[in-house]
Amino acid sequence: MSSWFDSYREALTKEMENEVLKVALERFSRTYWNNRNTALRRLPYYNYYRKRVKEIKTWSIAHINELIKMVKENLEALGGTFYLANTAKDAVEYVAKVCSEHNAKLIVKSKSMVTEEISLNDALIGRGMEVVETDLGEWIIQLRSEKPSHIIYPAIHLTREEVAKTFSKVLGRELPSDPPILVKVAREKLREKFINADVGISGANVIAADTSTIFIIENEGNARFSTNAPPVHICVSGIEKIVPTVEDALLVARVVTPNATGQLMPVYISLITGPSRTADIELKLTLGVHGPKELYLVLIDNGRSKMINDPDFREAAYCVKCGACLSDCPVYREVGGIVWSYKYIGGIGAIWTYFTHGLDKAAPLAFTCTTCGRCKAICPLEIDTPSMITKLRERLLKAGLVPQEALTTINNIKTIGNPFGITSPKPT
Questions:
Q1: CA 290, CA 110: separation in Å to the nearest integer?
Q2: Same domain membership, residue 67 and residue 34
Q3: Residue 232 three-state SS
Q4: Cα torsion for 260, 120, 9, 11, to the nearest 10°?
Q5: Tell me, what's the pLDDT at 1?
Q6: Is 103 helix (H, G, I), strand (E, B) or coil?
């Protein structure tokens, strides 16, 4: 067994014996499937939507530089500020600089895997700023000093009983494991943060290039508070989120929602097009009314261009981050996403990890996938993750990043003719 893989394998084994995780994932899987199937039965045009979104994403990725230029020009014409970060470090330094220039003491955030990718929270906290996650799941894992276990449901590895224990510890009083009561507690604790925040940071589910409109899909309402209440809004997004038009972006939202949460539509889709403005006094345009006076859009490359330009892995850039592949993955349902991740989770996460954090970080994830194909079958864009995993393993083999047991199996097949190393007795 390779030493780099040994500790990872031990962690996987431990998670498979985690009884709390088993209960949480069983509850999640049953509820998710019921909700998704019910939603899709009520969407007669779903197949049209998903095929159209595949076309939109294919065209957008092929013309990404053109779309980035459009977003920049349209946002700046509206009074917003645009920044293209080539690396994670560039993005972190720029966001930290904006926050420092505004003397930010308190920052509220809505859920964002891109900010998780670049470890933005740690960087801002390290500079003395208070950063509060406002999505309920993200807030729970922030209180527990954990990382997300699912791209849509970050605290899905926890049962309601575990959440009650966490809240009880934070509040210093015993709370029941009753979700409505726990949600009420979160609402009370977070409301003051929204009002007093100096800066709000969000991600983006999709961005329309023709108007530079940022789309944020949510159910809780926290993203609206985070992007509307503070005087400054910073949106951090990957370049792959851009599509040509508002109509295209709405189609993406229609496809993401039933696959992510099993709903026909989310409770909220926020469309943010520039800073808050008014012309109610003599038609004199003034920025900053009830919403933010300043809007910063930070687009991140951080390996995405390399992914897009690699014909073996370009398809991974089509991913709309709905999380359906995780929710149907037999491996995920056994081990969850705490261990089977670096920043991104699961099979598709292995591909994203390769380009955003390097081959060595992707290696353990790639050898956990069974390449069973269920992810491709459920993916609304039919992304062929199993084939990409196979190609990634080929590159890992060339780099010498293969578990020893896998090398032994390969050698057995080559030399003996079976993977088990069993030699047939010679006939007498």
A1: 19
A2: no
A3: strand
A4: -90
A5: 44
A6: coil
What is the model's pLDDT at position 254? 95
- CA-to-CA dists, residue 207 to 88, 115, 273, angstroms: 20, 16, 10
- What is the pTM (predicted TM-score) of this model? 0.94
Give the SS3 label for residue 413: helix
Other CB atoms closer than 10 Å to residue 378's CB: what's the count? 17
* Domain shared by 301 and 201, yes or no: yes
Whole-number Å distance between alpha carbons of 254 and 240: 18
* Per-residue model confidence as pLDDT tens digits over 137-168: 999 999 999 999 999 999 999 999 999 999 99
Examine the domain organization and report whether 135 and 167 are in the same domain: yes
Contact predicate 276/291, CB 8 Å: yes
Same domain, 287 and 357: no
The CB-side HSE value for 228 (13 A sphere, CA atoms) comes to: 10
Q: Identify whether residues 111 and 24 lie together within a single domain.
A: no
Judgement on whether residues 230 and 289 belong to the same structural domain of the protein: yes
- The domain that holds 209 is classified in CATH as 3.40.50.10420
Q: Is residue 123 within 8 Å of residue 89, measured between CB atoms? A: no
| Residues near 372 by beta carbon (within 8 Å), at least 6 away in sequence | 330, 386
DSSP run (H or E) holding 188: helix 179-196
| In a shared domain, residues 14 and 86 | no
- Burial class (CB within 10 angstroms; exposed 0-12, middle 13-18, buried 19+) of 91: buried
User: Which phi and psi angles does 230 have, rounded to 5°?
Assistant: -70, 160
Residue showing tokens 């992707």: 362
The answer to whether residues 294 and 331 belong to one domain is no
Domains held by the chain: number: 2
- Residue-range definition of the domain harbouring residue 253: 63-305
pLDDT in tens, 264-306: 999 999 999 999 989 889 888 888 899 999 999 999 999 999 9
* Residue 52, in any domain of the structure: no
Give a yes or no: residue 313 inside a domain. no
Q: Which residues of the chain have pLDDT under 70?
A: 1-2, 424-428
Within the chain, what is the greatest distance between any pair of CA atoms?
104
**Contact assessment for residue 201 and residue 296, using Cβ atoms and an 8 Å cutoff:** no
